[in-house]
């Protein structure tokens, strides 16, 4: 069964303090690993799709990387507006999206 | 391009009633998936439709059903509502099945 575990559950950073969020997974036949950002009361907002180990994607202060067992979302010099819950999702051979429980990020000014 | 839209945005029902939620995908997208999000279980997959056919189904009881119309719009129905059905119901669309999904704002359902 495909599984996704995200850590930490919650993370508090000071503005400008870089850090990484982790997404560990087990899957038979990876088709894609997805990162989403979700603000309270809203639907998840798509950030990145990664397809194979070694792949990296960047957008503003965010960079996503992928290995055969985990993915990292690196946040460089975060700002308060980066505060949100970050969700990792896995798509295996069944093509169903399996989500982790998320990491709630708070960036203090 | 307009995003995924869901109606209604908020709904209050009582136990035993049934409810129908609606989703309009991004223009040109033919695949629609539905998810249930609760604080305890997180985001859980309900089902996926592509070209009016159910392609995939999650582990939910038969009280949860859906359909897709020829214009790709989708509805999901929950019959005999239970208190535990209170959740945020999210719809997501993609160009084709198995591709990157884009989410709508969700329908917040409260069952009393």
Describe this structure in words.
The complex is a heterodimer of chains A (109) and B (112). With 109 residues, chain A is mainly β. Chain A has strands at residues 3-7, 10-14, 19-26, 32-38, 45-50, 56-59, 62-66, 70-75, 84-91, 97-99, 103-108. Chain A has no helices and eleven strands. In chain A, strands 2, 4, 5, 9, 10 and 11 form a six-stranded mixed sheet that branches. Chain A is globular and about 40 Å long. The model of chain A has no long low-confidence stretch (mean pLDDT 96). Chain B has 112 residues and is mostly beta strands. Helices cover 0% and strands 54% of the residues of chain B. In chain B, the strands form two sheets. In chain B, strands 2, 4, 5, 6, 9, 10 and 11 form a seven-stranded mixed sheet that branches. Chain B has a four-stranded antiparallel sheet with strand order 1-3-8-7, with no helix packed on it. In chain B, strand 9 (87-94) and strand 10 form a beta hairpin. The model of chain B has no long low-confidence stretch (mean pLDDT 96). Chain A binds chain B through residues 31-32, 34, 36, 41-46, 49, 87, 89, 91, 94-102, and chain B through 4, 33, 35, 42-45, 48, 55-56, 58, 90, 92, 97-98, 100-106, 108.
SSE diagram, text form:
The complex is a heterodimer of chains A (109) and B (112).
Chain A lengths: L2 E5 L2 E5 L4 E8 L5 E7 L6 E6 L5 E4 L2 E5 L3 E6 L8 E8 L5 E3 L3 E6 L1
Parallel strand pairs in A: 2-11
Antiparallel strand pairs in A: 1-3, 3-8, 4-5, 4-9, 6-7, 7-8, 9-10, 9-11
Chain B lengths: L4 E3 L2 E4 L5 E6 L6 E8 L3 E9 L2 E5 L6 E5 L5 E5 L8 E8 L7 E2 L3 E5 L1
Parallel strand pairs in B: 2-11
Antiparallel strand pairs in B: 1-3, 3-8, 4-5, 4-9, 5-6, 7-8, 9-10, 9-11
């Amino acid at each position: 069964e495909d599984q996704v575990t995200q850590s930490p559950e919650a993370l508090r950073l000071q503005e400008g303090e870089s850090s990484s969020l982790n997404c560990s997974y087990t899957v038979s036949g990876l088709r894609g690993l997805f990162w989403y950002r979700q603000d309270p009361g809203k639907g998840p907002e798509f950030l990145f799709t990664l397809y194979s180990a070694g792949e990296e994607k960047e957008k503003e202060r965010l960079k996503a990387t992928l290995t055969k067992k985990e993915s990292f979302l690196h946040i460089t010099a975060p700002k308060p507006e980066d505060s949100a819950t970050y969700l990792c999702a896995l798509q295996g051979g069944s093509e169903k999206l399996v989500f982790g429980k998320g990491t709630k990020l708070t960036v203090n000014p | 391009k307009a995003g995924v839209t869901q109606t209604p945005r908020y709904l209050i029902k009582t136990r035993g009633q049934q409810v129908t939620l609606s989703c309009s995908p991004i223009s040109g997208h033919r695949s629609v998936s539905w998810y249930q999000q609760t604080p305890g279980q997180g985001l859980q997959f309900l089902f996926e439709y592509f070209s009016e056919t159910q392609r995939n189904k999650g582990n939910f009881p038969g009280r949860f059903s859906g359909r897709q119309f020829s214009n790709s719009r989708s509805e999901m129905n929950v019959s005999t509502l239970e208190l535990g059905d209170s959740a945020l119901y999210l719809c997501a669309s993609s160009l084709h099945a198995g591709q990157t999904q884009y989410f709508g704002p969700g329908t917040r359902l409260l069952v009393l």
